[in-house]
Write a structure and sequence with these properties.
Elements (H helix, E strand, L loop, with lengths): L5 H13 L3 H6 L3 E6 L9 E4 L16 E6 H6 L4 H19 L4 H7 L3
Parallel strand pairs: 1-3
Antiparallel strand pairs: 2-3
Helix pairs in contact: 1-4
Length: 114
């Protein structure tokens, strides 16, 4: 499919984040979700960079936020239409948020989110 524009893609990602249960969203601390066209050196759909909540000690006011990057072009390239894209965006965003909560790839695969 032709890549969707950045604004439309941002909307797809925001829909997933906004649909998180309120209790889960309230537990997300110091994390930014950003949209990028591609990872500069790897073929990725998304990437979590930071310290998972399960590994954090005291988090001070001057800590840099964790970062979840969602890569627009690879996701668009793997999908045949926007319905499929929305489903893949959901899987990718949930997958990266799970890493923020300390859930590893093996556990995600076991749960069907890998």
């Amino acid at each position: 499919m032709e890549p969707v524009g950045t604004r439309r893609f941002e909307h797809l990602v925001a829909e997933v984040v906004d649909a998180l249960p309120a209790e889960l969203g309230a537990m997300m601390h110091n994390v930014a979700v950003v949209i990028e066209d591609r990872h500069p050196s790897e073929d990725l759909l998304g990437l979590y960079e930071g310290v998972p909540l399960t590994e954090r000690e005291a988090y001070g006011a001057f800590e840099m936020p964790d970062k979840i990057s969602i890569y627009r072009l690879p996701l668009c390239e793997m999908c045949s239409d926007e319905t499929e894209l929305a489903a893949e965006v959901e899987i990718t965003v949930i997958h990266e948020i799970a890493h923020h909560f300390g859930i590893d790839d093996e556990s995600l695969h076991t749960m069907g989110w890998g």
